[in-house]
């Protein structure tokens, strides 16, 4: 109910999950300082509206540390500078990374919500991801059918409002079609990964 009243809460949760997937994914490949992870995330998020601050990164490191998903590997102390801590992923963190990637596909909201997961498809069962993508495409096709059934011409409103409603309907329809095309490309990519393995 809170998410319906405050839709930005859903976006914030999705961004937090994406950041945590990026962190866990990077640490699954080696030990890193938080600042190194921020640089890596920045490269991936340059194409999106998300802006990640150092504070956001350190906060998410603390959350993951408290959950036991990552651990401190080494702390380097130097004079006149803050301590520099290297982190690594735990076994619990590896399982959480996999579960989080599946969850992103299961709770699909928009194409951008998948970005963090796309970078780490090598860490999950691509056959399972393919099924999840097929399910997303089926749901989006149902949205198109629903839009098709809505006849804005039958709404008894002023001509300007009727035209505005038609424009909104057209935009929604084209956006969903565009997302379906993109998801079909992703599905093809994931299926080709399954065939190679």
Structure description:
With 197 residues, this protein is mainly alpha-helical. It is 66% helix and 7% strand. It contains eight helices and two strands. It has helices at residues 2-5, 8-27, 34-45, 54-66, 91-106, 115-118, 126-149, 159-196, and strands at 70-76, 84-89. A two-stranded antiparallel ribbon has the order 1-2. Helix 2 (8-27) packs across helix 3 (34-45). It is elongated, with a radius of gyration of 21 Å. It starts with a helix and ends with a helix. Mean pLDDT is 84; it is low at 1-13.
| Integer-rounded radius of gyration | 21 Å
Describe the biggest sheet? Answer: 2 strands, antiparallel
Unreliable stretches, pLDDT < 50, 5 or more residues?
Answer: 1-13
Side by side, the strands of the main sheet go 1-2
- What is the structural class? mainly alpha
Instruction: Estimate the strand proportion.
Output: 5-15%
- Measured between the Cα atoms of the first and last residue, the distance is 42 Å
Please give the share of residues in helix: 55-70%
Helix-strand topology string: HHHHEEHHHH
Average the pLDDT over all residues and give the rounded result: 84
Shape: elongated
**How many beta-strand runs?**
2
H/I helix tally: 8
